Amino acid sequence: MIKKSSYLFLVIATICLLKLVQIGYKRINFSSEILFNSFTEDFGGNIALSKNIIEGYKLISQNKLPDFNLSKNLISNGYFKQRIVEYSYPIRLNKDSNHLISQFQEKINCKLKSQSENLKLYEC
Question: What is the pTM of this model?
């Protein structure tokens, strides 16, 4: 009798586990890659963030900036400001920094240091 109930429990537990896997993969688009790489440095930014944020971070990290500032247009964009500050941490936003990130079409009277597809990095 104990064996029959333990087999029944095992079958029910297997069905429940398979159902959870099916819900995860089919209904909520669970990705095991995200789970297994969740503690890998710089993983998942391209999944969670917009292209402009990734470009801004690349400008900051490739130029090894100690801090940075944003142009008036980028400061006024609350989404961009919040995400670039969060993603570039521990490098901080500093209004007195001589490194300025701006949108590509903005005219800034400083020395162009680097650029990406949509953003420019100036040294003032």
Answer: 0.66
Q: Give me the DSSP letters along 67-113.
A: EEEE-HHHHH-HHHHHHHHHHHTTSEE-TT-SEEEEETT---SSEEE
* Domain-wise residue ranges, the chain: 2-30, 45-123
Structure tokens given for 17: 């586990």
Looking only at the bridges linking them, the beta strands covering 99-103 and 92-93 are unpaired
- Residue 122 in 3-state DSSP? strand
pLDDT-derived band at 2, boundaries 50, 70, 90:
low
Query: If DSSP codes are grouped into helix, strand and coil, which group holds residue 60?
Result: helix
Predicted confidence (pLDDT) per residue in 80-110, tens digit? 899 999 988 899 999 998 998 998 888 888 8
Distances (CA, A) of 70 to 41, 49, 112: 25, 18, 14
